[in-house]
Amino acid sequence: MREEFIRTGMIFGETAMKKLAASRVAVFGIGGVGGHVVEALARSGIGALDLIDNDRVAPSNLNRQIVATQSTIGQFKTEAAEKRIHDISPDCKVRTFNTFFMPDTADEFDFTQYDYVVDAIDTVTGKIEIIMRAKAAGVPVISSMGAGNKVDPTAFEVADIYKTSVCPLARVMRREMKKRGVKALKVVYSKEEALTPIAGMCTDGGSRRSTPGSNAFVPSVAGLIIAGEVIKDLTGFSRK
After folding, report:
1. In three state form, how does the secondary structure of 72-94 look?
2. What is the dihedral sign for C-alpha 188, 145, 170, 175?
């Protein structure tokens, strides 16, 4: 076992660490949530990561996205994440896709090659496509629900989509999954009521119809919870 992963191995065991080293995980969306997923997976010894996101790092990302620093502004988020991964785990095999994932780009990805899929994107159409492709390939998938306009990191829960409440995005996804006959979907969501952003504070030029407020401590927690679920599911870990 590599020295950098010994402390993780002390909890999960050598067999589990070999499993993680042999696993390929796809993370769709390398933003406030997905960036922290990637970071935690790399630090846990995942052997291969596919990173999918078409955005570049912007100054407005600095408050919450782990790939965002002054030195990475203007870089593709996938490429900034790849550099961090290789600084942490040089042997991790990383593939980057500067792609806006939607049904019309989905054929670029062979979901059968993945051991786990993480959906950390914002677009409902894209989220549905990721989930349906993963389900069709028989690959476990976990989906992030809404993290914007929230301030309580302790409110996140891991649940099946059909047991969620309050979260507007989860409500939409419940309906869409039911229409498509999806029987179960693991999600991370919060029952916290979203705040209303203060008017006139948006700096993105109005490029999004409803830009959410965010912070350093809510999306990060959602991402770390998701990463923990991936690691536990891949290794079959359960607390006895």
Report:
1. HCCCEHHHHHHHHHHHHCCCCEE
2. negative
93 token code pair = 């095999």
* Residue 22: half-sphere exposure toward Cβ, Cα within 13 Å: 8
Give tens-digit pLDDT for 164-186.
999 999 999 999 999 999 999 99
Work out the mean pLDDT of the chain and round it to a whole number: 95
Instruction: Provide the strand spans (E) within the chain.
Output: 24-28, 48-52, 93-97, 116-119, 141-144, 156-160, 186-190
Chain-centroid distance, C-alpha 202: 24
In CATH terms, is domain 3-198+209-235 a member of 3.40.50.720?
Answer: yes
Q: Among 27, 227, 23, which residue's Cα sits nearest to residue 109?
A: 27
Domain spans, the chain: 3-198+209-235
